[in-house]
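User: Sequence in, structure out. Go.
Assistant: Echoing your sequence, followed by the structure tokens.
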Amino acid sequence: MGSRGDFLKKVIVILIIAGMVLGSVAMAVVYCFADEKAEASGEPEITAEAAILYCENTGEIIYAKNAKTVMKPYSITKLLTALLAVRNLSPDQVVTVSATAAGQGGSSMELKEGEQLTVEELLYGTLVVSGNDAAYALAEAVSGSVSDFVDLMNKTAANIGCRNTKFANPSGLSNDIKKHYTTAEDFLQIAKLAFADDTVRKIAGASKHTVPATNKSEERKLEEHTELISKASSGIVAAKTGFWDEANCSISALYDKDGLRLIIILMGDTMDERTDDVLALTKYAERTIQGITVVKNGEAAGNVRVHHGAKTKIEAFAALDGVAYLPAGASESLITTEAVMKDDVEAPVEKGDVVGTYRIYVADELVNEVDLISGEDVKTGWLPSYLGISNTTTVIGGAVIGALLILFIWIKVHNARVRRAKKRLHRQMVMEMAMEELRREQEKKERGWRY
């Protein structure tokens, strides 16, 4: 019995191991098939539960995932808070921080009760370090109380078409989806307005900021919560992150690179994957949205004047391809361009120096700018270059002047010689005439003597 039992145990173990191996193989096949399917479809693979990718150039939603699903926005809520503050308050208006604002937990710019700061500094505290205290201080400055401000937030959201959105506070510090919620589709409308505002866009695009000392605090140094803004290669020029814990994060970001402008909303994401998801969506947009190449890399775009140069004019060339993205169905006739050269280019100039800008417009709206660069080195010119005369022109002009001077001298010498020759000829003629007259007189005398 013992040996049979051992044998059965071995068989069971072998069957279990075989099952695990077959299961692993089956899972590998499934994942492989899924990867091939995703690659074939070309759609990005992201971790976020809900997402939306919007192209400002074309006015189209390029990608969406559970965009109508109600989600918790967390601190991206502060984009609306900042927008309402900018619309209703002066940037240099001084705000006195209340006990309620100073007492907010979570992310903070460490405000103190009774501290006085300008609206602009509170905006930096709200958007750069996601200060819940700063958001509450702005809310109270706008509406007098947080509850009234929340009413304003919800009315504004409803007015712009957010049908599945409700806010409970100005900071987004809430994990209760029944009280504080939105959808990726709804929040896109808020992000459009927020990022269209110059002040909000500038502050949301700051990687760091120094808040001057106040009546209750020393100087503060603020740093943003996402590395995307610090990396120029990412194309992200403004962003607001949201965070509850490592597994519950969000972000609203503005992408602007090579003329392509995108808004990205991610919710229900993880801290580890949030950045990768943003980059995956921007890459997807770059390969999906087809633009029109208006000017090609290296294409000549006109001449620029060089002050004090061995050359006074040089050709400028496009440093990159200049692309325009048109709204769906729009005509290419909407595209116009202009080359704007710098008027302060001074020698020496090195090949590759930026000497101007190639501007691309769609329906008279500036949509892209490409640097124009020098295609050659230009050394400092000789003294005449300060009068706008190139070295080559100086050489040619000098040669011409020299030749004219030589010709003038030759003519003067020649004329002098001619005059001297004429004088000699005249004297000779006078002498010959005098001699002839003497000869005639002599002949007359001789004839008289004969007679």
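User: And one key feature?
Assistant: Residues 397-434 form one domain.
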